[in-house]
């Protein structure tokens, strides 16, 4: 993450380019008018014109109102800055919240993952945020920075290759969150067996690295039932015996993006000392092809006692989530949200611009959608119909895990399946398969993992569960 | 079609006697009580023994009941549950389920004395819709395998009110059957010219029918529709059906409501040919047009007080020697150009030209198009909901509500600039596919580009009925096969908001 300094004025020796946020052409300082005009600068959001000879950037903000608008302007600045190691944004004269959002957006856009490069990728490292009163901005910034760090943790985890981020390594990364005051409990095979979590055990059975259930707790400071996040953490998904085609399989290292987003949200809550208690239940497994892999036709007894007929071992996410959702019931949550890169069907349905939102509680669904809009992670409501549940009737078990054949509404089927395991608390399911990775750069992130969900959950808690 | 009559209550001497009973009904009354008495309490004993409580979906049949006076009576008595809330919707579903229980009798009498007129009419409607059968091409079916029911008599003291409630339903049922016939017809019979001729036959209902061929369409610049038709030996047609139920006899007509249907009478996919498995289903790729035609017949049949236009673009998508190719660029009637990437995304090309023509000629109050447009909508929603796309929240809300009321549910799907970008072309104004992700949405974005809002708002909705136009299993009021999904919905939309 960018190192952000709040300063009243530019450094004396500064050769770092300075971005000037401007709402329209009229706001351009008179000395720069001619250049702005020649470059076609209108102040519209998304515009950034470098004036290298002056060390300045004209940054269009348009009529920015929401913090998301300011974040996107900050992201645009970070993208346009090129290879400069240090840059500055002149937020003097702006409200403290807007200034903080500019920095947050810049950090999100400037994120890079260099661990496996011999030389770090070029680009900015440091940001000087020029403000009128650093002390007034500091609390806004620390709040915004918490969400950013949560999001970037989710991206870092999703980016890690599957040979380094094994289930064990993922669990160790989560255990390290204890330094921020998060209590972490990791259930290994023995305890999973004692809990009877047959779905998670079966999916993880084919791999050399064992399945884990990680439980992260943030106590908060108010006596209230916790909000629970449930995440799918398939560290690599070969599809198992129902193996996937080779083309594009490398992307399956990110099939743990749901769990990563939940972990990121927990980090954000802890960093900003959220008063709301929250728990994340993350199901970690590798869906490998091995001598102990589970098979199509197997019948599993799940943690809830229900039996499930396996039809396709590549529909593994719903099995591990079902057990995690069941495990979450013991916390008597006031709301449960699960995040998962669950189905290709949701990509066909909604593409890469919105995640699918399913659930049983209109209030929680509306809240999740509003939180998503606030942070630029939009959702779209999707149905769970009677027929979707009927389609899962099995000839041998309580239900089957999915259907077979062409043109199946698998995202709806998966949601209908999960509903059977979600407890009585309001529940929402976010199918993020289309949005967890960006094919193209966007104002708030380069191509690659988006961290979708971490900021959304953080915003959800902040908007609705802290009062 | 089964004859539906409303008669004075009297015990039938043959056929079936149907007793619709609500959950928690205290004692048998009217004809039910009469038949129970005439059979020495056999009916009540049977209901008790069978655990019949009047629940939704419950039924109980008493076979060949003997009358205590030795007279001849009904050959079967069928009790059918209406559930706790006796609504028209519940009665319709019960009527649908009833059909299988009485279809072996020539006549059935329903003891509907206790039912409000709309409920009695709905029960008849459910039975009638469920009785649909397309047996034109069966020549060797044995007589005993054919359903026999010819007449359903609804026994009610309020025959006049029931008849009033029934009249519009009958017209709607006629429309539904027209649609189902069109959708069921094989593609070697129902080609574009034949389908247009069948529209012509609806002039007898008071519809104005115009048929345009390739020459007229060429003059209108409909390069997209004509491009799709190039690979087939069958000429394309565009049919304009008009019903002037509001302005009839008045000088100044009002703006009509408009319905547009995709009518691909068979879709091989063209040069981007489909795989063989299941291709026979592509005979119903004209269901959008079939539904618009049935809808117009229903509006005319019930003399709806509305001005409505229905436009259908009829083509066959074949890989003939003159077929259009992937890479071709066509110019639509609106002047916008389209790069054809996939010849199997042909429905939107047809709709583009017809929608533009519709708006230009009629300046309607709204446009709703129906199309079996994408496989993606099935992957998104399955078979319970049609995908609803709209640029107008009020219209969309009304469609959602109307669909819910008639059991043709829609689910709103998103539109937006990010999706619109998916159909950018390197050579033309747009391309005709936007990739697999959000496939139904980019298709809707394509259509939306032909809805002109430059001069002012143009409320528009697009129903992707690929998952709902045909059912692989029996539904409460639709045997498996063509459903006519959308017809009753749009009829209800008109009745609720655009009449009078």
Automatic annotation (TrEMBL), chain A:
Cellular component, GO, one term: cytoplasm
Alphabetical UniProt keywords = Aminopeptidase, Hydrolase, Manganese, Protease
Q: Which CDD domains match?
A: Peptidase_M17
Q: Does the keyword Disulfide bond apply?
A: no
What's a Pfam family this protein contains?
Answer: Peptidase_M17
The residues covered by the Cytosol aminopeptidase domain are: 153-457
Please give the Gene3D superfamilies that the UniProt record associates with this protein.
Leucine Aminopeptidase, subunit E, domain 1, Zn peptidases
Which family is annotated? Belongs to the peptidase M17 family.
Name this protein carries in UniProt: Leucyl aminopeptidase
Q: Which organism is it from?
A: Belnapia rosea
TrEMBL record, chain B:
Q: Where is the signal peptide?
A: none
Positions annotated to bind Mn(2+) 1? 267, 344, 346
Pfam families, from UniProt?
A: Peptidase_M17, Peptidase_M17_N
Q: Which GO terms describe its molecular function?
A: manganese ion binding; metalloaminopeptidase activity
Q: Which family does it belong to?
A: Belongs to the peptidase M17 family.
Job description of the protein: Presumably involved in the processing and regular turnover of intracellular proteins. Catalyzes the removal of unsubstituted N-terminal amino acids from various peptides.
Protein name from the UniProt record: Probable cytosol aminopeptidase
């Amino acid at each position: 993450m960018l190192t952000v300094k709040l300063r009243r004025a530019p450094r004396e020796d500064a050769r770092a380019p300075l971005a000037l946020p401007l709402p329209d052409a009229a706001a351009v300082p008179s000395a720069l008018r001619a250049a702005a005009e020649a470059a076609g600068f209108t102040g519209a959001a998304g515009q950034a014109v470098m004036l290298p000879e002056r060390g300045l950037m004209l940054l269009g903000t348009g009529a920015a109102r929401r913090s998301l608008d300011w974040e996107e302007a900050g992201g645009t600045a970070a993208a346009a800055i090129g290879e400069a190691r240090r840059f500055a944004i002149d937020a003097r004269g702006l409200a403290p919240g807007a200034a903080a959002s500019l920095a947050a957006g810049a950090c999100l856009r400037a994120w890079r993952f260099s661990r496996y490069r011999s030389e770090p990728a070029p680009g900015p490292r440091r940001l000087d945020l020029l403000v009128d009163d650093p002390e007034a901005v500091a609390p806004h910034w620390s709040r915004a920075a918490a969400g950013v760090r949560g999001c970037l943790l989710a991206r870092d985890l999703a980016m890690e290759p599957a040979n380094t981020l094994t289930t064990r390594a993922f669990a160790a990364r989560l255990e390290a969150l204890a330094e921020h005051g998060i209590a972490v409990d990791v259930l290994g095979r023995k305890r999973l067996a004692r809990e009877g979590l047959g779905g998670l055990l079966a999916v993880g059975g084919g791999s050399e690295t064992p399945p884990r259930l990680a439980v992260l707790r943030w106590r908060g400071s108010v006596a209230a039932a916790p909000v629970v996040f449930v995440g799918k953490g398939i560290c690599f998904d070969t599809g198992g015996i129902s193996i996937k085609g080779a083309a594009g399989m490398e992307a399956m290292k990110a099939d743990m993006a749901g769990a990563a987003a939940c972990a990121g949200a927990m980090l954000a809550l802890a960093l900003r000392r959220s008063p709301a208690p929250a728990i994340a239940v993350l199901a970690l497994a590798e869906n490998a092809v091995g001598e102990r892999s589970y098979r199509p036709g197997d019948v599993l007894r799940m943690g809830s006692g229900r039996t499930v007929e396996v039809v396709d071992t590549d529909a593994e996410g719903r099995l591990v989530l079902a057990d995690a959702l069941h495990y979450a019931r013991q916390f008597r949550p006031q709301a449960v949200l699960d995040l998962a890169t669950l189905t290709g069907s949701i990509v066909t349905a909604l593409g890469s611009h919105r995640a699918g939102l399913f659930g049983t509680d209109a209030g929680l669904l509306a809240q999740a959608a509003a939180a998503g809009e606030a942070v630029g992670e939009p959702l779209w409501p999707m149905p769970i119909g009677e027929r979707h549940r009927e389609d899962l009737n099995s000839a041998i078990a309580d239900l089957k895990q999915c259907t077979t054949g062409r043109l199946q509404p698998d995202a709806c089927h998966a949601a209908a399946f999960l509903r059977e395991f979600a407890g009585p608390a309001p529940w929402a399911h976010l199918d993020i398969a289309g949005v967890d990775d960006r094919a193209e750069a966007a104002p708030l992130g380069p191509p690659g993992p988006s961290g979708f969900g971490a900021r959304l959950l953080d915003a959800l808690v902040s908007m609705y569960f802290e009062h | 079609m089964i004859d539906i009559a409303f008669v004075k209550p009297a015990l039938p001497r043959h056929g079936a006697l149907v007793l619709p009973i609500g959950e928690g009904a205290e004692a048998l009354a009217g004809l039910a009580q009469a038949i129970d008495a005439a059979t020495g309490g056999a009916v009540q004993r049977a209901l008790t023994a069978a655990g019949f409580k009047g629940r939704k979906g419950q039924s109980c049949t008493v076979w060949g009941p003997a009358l205590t006076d030795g007279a001849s009576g009904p050959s079967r008595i069928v009790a059918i549950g209406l559930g706790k809330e006796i609504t028209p919707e519940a009665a319709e579903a019960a009527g649908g389920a009833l059909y299988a229980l009485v279809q072996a009798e020539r006549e059935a009498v329903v003891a509907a004395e206790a039912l409000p007129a709309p409920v009695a009419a709905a029960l008849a409607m459910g039975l009638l819709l469920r009785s649909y059968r397309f047996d034109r091409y069966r020549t060797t079916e044995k007589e005993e395998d054919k359903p026999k029911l010819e007449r359903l008599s609804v026994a009610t003291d309020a025959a006049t009110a029931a008849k009033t409630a029934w009249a519009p339903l009958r017209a709607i049922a006629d429309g539904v059957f027209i649609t189902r016939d069109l959708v069921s017809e094989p593609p070697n019979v129902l080609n574009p010219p034949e389908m247009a001729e069948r529209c012509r036959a609806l002039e007898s209902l008071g519809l104005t029918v115009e048929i345009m061929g390739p020459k007229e369409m060429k003059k209108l610049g409909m390069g997209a529709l004509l491009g799709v038709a190039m690979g087939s030996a069958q000429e394309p047609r565009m049919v304009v059906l008009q019903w002037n139920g509001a302005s009839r006899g008045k000088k100044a007509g009002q703006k009509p409501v408009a319905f547009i249907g995709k009518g691909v009478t068979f879709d091989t996919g063209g040069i981007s040919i489909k795989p063989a498995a299941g291709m026979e289903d592509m005979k119903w790729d004209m269901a959008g047009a079939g539904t618009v035609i049935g809808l117009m017949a229903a509006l005319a049949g019930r003399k709806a007080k509305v001005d409505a236009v229905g436009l259908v673009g009829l083509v066959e998508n074949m890989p003939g020697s003159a077929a259009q190719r992937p890479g071709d660029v066509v110019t639509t009637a609106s002047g916008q150009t389209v790069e054809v990437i996939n010849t199997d995304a042909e429905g939107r090309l047809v709709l583009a030209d017809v929608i533009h023509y519709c708006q230009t000629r009629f300046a309607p109050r709204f446009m709703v198009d129906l199309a079996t447009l994408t496989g993606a909508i099935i992957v998104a929603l399955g078979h319970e909901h049609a995908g609803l796309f709209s640029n107008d929240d009020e219209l969309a809300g009304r469609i959602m509500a109307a669909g819910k009321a008639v059991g043709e549910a829609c689910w709103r799907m998103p539109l937006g600039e990010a999706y619109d970008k998916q159909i950018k072309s390197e050579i033309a104004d747009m391309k005709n596919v936007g990739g697999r992700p959000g496939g139904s949405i980019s298709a809707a974005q394509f259509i939306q580009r032909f809805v002109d809002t430059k001069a002012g708002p143009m409320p528009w909705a697009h129903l992707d009925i690929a998952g709902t136009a045909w059912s692989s299993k029996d539904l409460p009021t639709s045997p498996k096969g063509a459903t006519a999904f959308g017809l009753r919905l749009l009829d209800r939309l008109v009745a609720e908001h655009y009449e009078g």
